[in-house]
Amino acid sequence: MSFTLAIVGRPNVGKSTLFNRLVGKKLALVDDQPGVTRDLREGEARLGDLRFTVIDTAGLEDATDDSLQGRMRRLTERAVDMADVCLFMIDARAGVTPTDMIFAEILRKKSAHVILAANKGEGAAADAGVIEAYSLGLGEPIRLSAEHGEGMNDLFVQLLPVEEKFKKLAEETAPETDVELDEDADEGAVPKPTNEKPLQIAVVGRPNAGKSTLINKIIGEDRLLTGPEAGITRDAISLRTTWNDTPMRIFDTAGMRKKAKVQDKVEKLSVSDGLRAVKFAEVVVVLLDAAIPFEQQDLRIADLAEREGRAVVVAVNKWDVEDAKQEKLRDLKEAFGRLLPQLRGAPLITVSAKTGRGLERLHDAILRAYDVWNRRVTTAQLNRWLTGMLEQHPPPAPQGKRIKLRYMTQAKSRPPGFVVMCSHPDKMPDSYSRYLVNGLREDFDMPGTPIRLHMRGQG
Ligand code: GDP
Ligand code: GDP
User: Fold this and answer.
1) Residue set of the binding site for GTP
2) How many angstroms from the chain centroid is the CA of residue 449?
3) By the 8 A CB rule, do 90 and 100 touch?
4) Residue 244 and residue 217: Cα distance in Å, rounded?
5) Based on C-alpha coordinates, what's the Rg of the chain?
6) Regarding beta strands 246-252 and 237-243, do their DSSP bridges make them parallel or antiparallel, or are they unpaired?
7) Half-sphere exposure of residue 21: CA atoms within 13 angstroms, side-chain side
8) How do residues 34-80 score in pLDDT, each as one tens digit?
9) Cis peptide bond N-terminal to 396, omega within 30
10) CA 399/CA 397 separation, integer angstroms
11) Rounded to 5 degrees, what are φ and ψ at 244?
């Protein structure tokens, strides 16, 4: 048993596309399911290791124009009644329409929990619509591309607390359960998990870098003996834990699987597993082996984490066996700057997963990286800042026409994304964008996090 998510919104915003993506191959079974009306489709969804029921209000497409409003309202209300949580979808390319506002009104009145999604979010054409979505008064929108599968991690993160709440409810209402995990835990040693949303981290790196050893150390040996959480599948292996009072969910790659004795496949699977873990993480810990740091595979996964917009912390493991620590650290920092310039300012922490040295600092670096990744700068601050930047170093004038930068706003966080309204956005040289990005990093203290900057023309 799990929670139910209803996807609602006006026709053509992409509800069915998301439904199909969540339900996947099982779709064929869905239509035959007894009890499912023609208007509401129901399916079993999976997202990472979450399993839930999803309802799609797809029947609306057949509605004729004059009957649309009434039908839409009834259908939406029915879906809302059936669901634990609603995903309200708008089309970011179209922006907020009057019909969207009617929906928002219904949802504000009827639904206890609404997740706002701005779909068709791929590309700069969606920037303005994503910003507009805030005006619906339903909180921060998730930028989605149902068609391309972008933003699924953000959706996952927003669904986690729903699942937690639901699980708790299920436990409370079921007097006798077989769940022993909590009773088994050593009462003294394991801090009580709080209700806060766990921070999602992934530990990635080459085979033998020490990923399992590190995770063991973090969660405590005896907890590991109980194995990964129930319901863990081949797709996503995650463990809930509390590390120094911080609730965390750790996505493991090859490590856990090795313990699960599928040893022969470990080498082959580790890269694609790493990619999957990166997608679900908020902070990615790239674990290097001090003896062979920055190998091709390490660079690839670190670059991927940056491109996926994750906060990155680099941890150099097996530091206990290094002799010339000072020299080595200098070399590592130099190599880091040279080989991964896109991660400028990201923390580099030396650790020993074996002895536990440096883990405290790793923990703190993760929290700081997460904080930066979530940072929001107000529009007023940004524009004051932009004026100063323009004075200090005016934008170029290709073919004698100066590019005008008019206005700037932060469109999103996680990672921070900014939009600059300007003339001739296509003529803006990369060097000037870099000047602005580096300035943002410095002046708003955002080291290490990927920063996205979009130039947009007016109108
Ligand atoms: P529904 O009526 O809300 O269920 O919308 P559909 O899922 O049928 O999608 C409507 C149209 O939008 C289809 O042509 C989809 O291919 C397209 N679409 C859905 N999601 C996306 C997206 O993320 N990006 C873009 N560009 N198009 C999308
Ligand atoms: P994984 O493949 O990344 O999960 O790596 P493992 O955790 O299985 O570790 C690979 C090997 O490195 C094992 O023999 C570990 O004992 C060893 N190892 C892991 N961490 C450390 C460390 O901090 N110091 C030393 N000296 N050895 C370590």
Assistant:
1) 9-16, 56-60, 119-122, 205-212, 252-256, 317-320
2) 13
3) yes
4) 12
5) 24
6) antiparallel
7) 18
8) 333 345 677 888 888 788 989 887 655 444 555 566 767 777 887 88
9) no
10) 6
11) 45, 50
Ligand 2, atom 25, lies closest to the CA of 318
User: Is residue 177 exposed (0-12), middle (13-18) or buried (19+ Cβ within 10 Å)?
Assistant: exposed
Q: Mean pLDDT score of the chain, rounded to an integer?
A: 79
CA–CA gap between residue 166 and residue 83 (Å, rounded): 12
Q: Which residues fall within 8 angstroms of residue 57, CB to CB, at 6 or more apart?
A: 6, 7, 8, 9, 15, 39, 40, 75, 76, 79
- Provide the pLDDT for residue 233: 34
Does the complex come out with an ipTM higher than 0.85? no
CB 108, CB 138: distance < 8 Å: yes
Does the Cβ of 147 fall within 6 Å of ligand 1?
yes
Tell if the pTM clears 0.90, that is, is over it: no
pLDDT of residue 175: 38
Task: Indicate whether 151 pLDDT > 80.
Answer: yes
Coil, strand, or helix at residue 298? helix
Ligand nearest to the CA of 356: 2
**Strand runs (DSSP E) across 253-374, as ranges?**
283-289, 311-317, 348-350
CB of 433 within 8 A of CB of 124?
Answer: no
CB-based contact 213:354 (threshold 8 Å): yes
Dihedral, CA atoms, 306, 308, 313, 317, nearest 10 degrees?
-90
Q: Is the pLDDT of residue 16 over 90?
A: no
Q: Could you give the maximum distance between any two Cα atoms of the chain, in Å?
A: 78
Share of the chain above pLDDT 70, in %: 78
For 77-118, the pLDDT digits (tens) are 878 877 889 999 999 999 999 889 988 988 888 877 899 999
In the beta sheet, which residues pair with residue 5?
A: 54, 85
Express each pLDDT in 364-417 by its tens digit. 999 999 999 999 898 889 999 999 999 999 998 888 888 899 888 888 888 898
Cα–Cα distance for residue pair 301/287, rounded to 1 Å: 10
Task: State the distance from the centre of ligand 2 to the C-alpha of 356, rounded, in angstroms.
Answer: 12
Residue 350 has pLDDT above 90, yes or no: yes
Task: Tell me the residue type at 359.
Answer: L
Find the ligand nearest to 350 CA. Answer: 2
